[in-house]
Write a structure and sequence with these properties.
63% helix; 177 residues; mainly alpha; 2 strands
């Protein structure tokens, strides 16, 4: 059973290949149970639409983008992706509590500061979020679920994501190692 776990300086993490295998099983289970794959960016988008609608309802109604997700009295938060994201957050919290890793900290390479790490996290989040909206899905929805559904677009997204990751990892390796 030790091959499933990695000990990194007294913290036990799952082997990433085992985690990927389990993620694949979750995608299959999701298709079997709900008829849909998994996704992440759609839940965040629903939260943004609900926030804009609560703060500036006339702007949300008149916006070509936001109005697509507003349907009468139904809340934009009433989608399965929002509940999935809440489950992911609850699962991460549970995992951290069970493994005694529940504390606020910033993990970064010793070659950079925590502030630099946070700026790159913010920049990466904006780029990834914007890219997922342009591509109509993120790695979870576009790549994992699309590929699992034998979609050519899912295959292209998967190749593009991992290909660009290998291509650009060399330039940004200081942020991690």
């Amino acid at each position: 059973m030790n091959f499933l776990l990695e000990d990194r300086k007294t913290r036990i993490y799952w082997n990433p290949y085992f985690g990927g295998f389990l993620l694949g099983l979750i995608v299959i289970f999701s298709f079997y149970v709900s008829g849909r794959g998994i996704g992440a960016s759609g839940g965040v988008k629903s939260a943004v639409v609900a926030t804009v609608n609560a703060v500036a309802p006339s702007h949300a109604e008149n916006s070509a983008y936001f109005s697509k997700f507003l349907k009468g009295d139904k809340s934009p938060l009433n989608t399965w992706l929002v509940f999935q994201m809440l489950g992911v957050i609850a699962g991460a919290f549970f995992s951290g509590a069970v493994n005694n890793r529940l504390k606020i900290r910033i993990q970064h390479s010793p070659k950079i500061t925590a502030k630099t790490r946070l700026w790159f996290v913010l920049l990466g989040g904006f780029l990834f979020g914007g890219g997922s909206q342009l591509a109509r899905g993120c790695t979870s929805g576009g790549a994992l679920s699309g590929f699992a559904a034998n979609s050519l677009g899912g295959l292209i997204i998967m190749i593009s994501i991992f290909g660009s990751g290998y291509l650009f990892a060399y330039f940004f390796r200081k942020l991690w190692i």
